[in-house]
Amino acid sequence: MTVPNHSRAMKSGLYRKAAPMMALMVRKNMEAEYTSVGLHCVQADHQSNQTELLARLAYLLGMGAEIARAIPVAGDNRPGLHQALATVVDMAVDGHRWDSSWGAQLSLAADISIDLFCSYRDLARRFEPGARLLSRHVLAGTGRADVIRPVEFPIGNEMA
User: Fold this and answer.
1) Region at 35 (left for phi over 0; alpha for psi -120 to 50; beta for the rest)
2) Residues above pLDDT 90, as percent of the chain
3) 74-92 as b/e, with b when 16 or more CB fall inside 10 Å?
4) CA dist 88 to 53, 104, 153, Å?
5) Which of 17, 91, 110, 153 reaches 20 to 30 Å from 53, CA-CA?
6) pTM score, two decimals?
């Protein structure tokens, strides 16, 4: 049995045009979904219960921190994303109470994570199961503070 090679589609460039459009659609969907998360970060009341927000941040920042750990990224984003994730987990362990002093930083970390997720989708897929698991633990209230280990960078991938 032969597998069709879709040569007509390849010659007309349909596949080449589809990949950037798909990437744009993924980015726009992520931005739309997580824009409310960023806004919620800066608007949530101090010490209020924010279980769902923390779970969503654990997922998003978990992927962003892992991507930033795996590849070189600009600025202080590697340790910053890791710190943001540790802060989210600490809040979750502390009864899901929101610390509003972190709102702006967590909103920025969410934006950076979206950029990393959209720019490195293949790498993000590798880290998604762990991020989903962390999110479920945060949502269920079964997370532990020691789940986030100190940041370690692979050899040759140290911060400049």
Assistant:
1) alpha
2) 49
3) eeebbbbbbbbbbbbbebb
4) 9, 13, 21
5) 153
6) 0.76
pLDDT digits (tens, 9 = 90+) for 5-25: 443 433 444 444 456 777 677
Contact 131, 63 (CB under 8 A): yes
Residue-wise DSSP of the chain: -PPP--HHHHHHTHHHHHHHHHHHHHHHHHHHHHHHHHHHHHHSPTT-B-HHHHHHHHHHHHHHHHHHHHS--STTHHHHHHHHHHHHHHHHHTTSB--GGGHHHHHHHHHHHHHHHHHTHHHHHHHHHHHHHHHHHHHHT---GGGSPPP---TT----
Tell me the per-residue pLDDT of 76-134, one tens digit each, with 9 for 90 and over. Answer: 788 899 999 999 999 999 999 999 999 999 999 998 998 888 888 888 889 999 999 99
Answer yes or no: are the C-beta atoms of 58 and 134 closer than 8 Å.
yes
Q: What integer pLDDT is reported at residue 115 of this predicted model?
A: 86
